[in-house]
Amino acid sequence: MTTFSKFIPGIASGSLEIAPALANLNFDFSLWKVAAPKEFEGVGSALSSSRRDDAERGMLHTIARKLGALFERRLPSTPGLTTAYGTRASEIAQVLSLGEQGRKSYGVFASRAGADATSLWAAATSGPSAISVHLLACMLARIWDAPEATSIWVEIVKRRKEEVIAEFDGTDIAHLATLSAAQQDLPRAQIAEWDDSARAWLRVADAIKKKQQKQLMLILDNIQVPVNAKTDTYESVMEAWSNALIQ
Question: Fewest Cβ atoms closer than 10 Å to its Cβ: which of 69, 112, 115, 123?
Fold first, then answer.
């Protein structure tokens, strides 16, 4: 793994000759964890021990962190949205919170009982940009079926990686995680797992907010307005995503 010690001589001498070191970054995203915003605490406490472990140390956590780092510089700051999303998500998750005694009644399935908000907690413990990425996962899962949504993810990840590499001038050490994410593999199977977990969360939310969801869909089904006029998949998704985050 590249370390900051490789950068010190250049910094001390007033010149920054770091391009060779940055060209082979191997940031371990599985080790990166941040404290979830307090508004999301209800989500974490509602998870079974197995799902919480998956979210904090498993593959979904690594995926959330990679995607968050990759898209971080393209996303607007949305502290208000993070607060609102966490508050609503915690409210939903707590409705299905079982507690230890409740889970024991499920016997051998106890470790998987209760609300499946694994990807959401993975995002919440991976930073604000990962939370925004989870919102995109829900958007894509709502509109397209799994194979199509996964293909869109594959395309926008590919394009974003190309964008990051093209923008790198060999001297920028302010966004090491973004550069490393652009250099690491994110297989379609992992993206499909991310999409599947987001769909699991949508099923939980829809079940709890069944009446509100039905009312919303009745309204949306009668609105014939295109998301945007862009024909390029990457640009269209990025514009729709950014607009959804700030409106």
Answer: 112
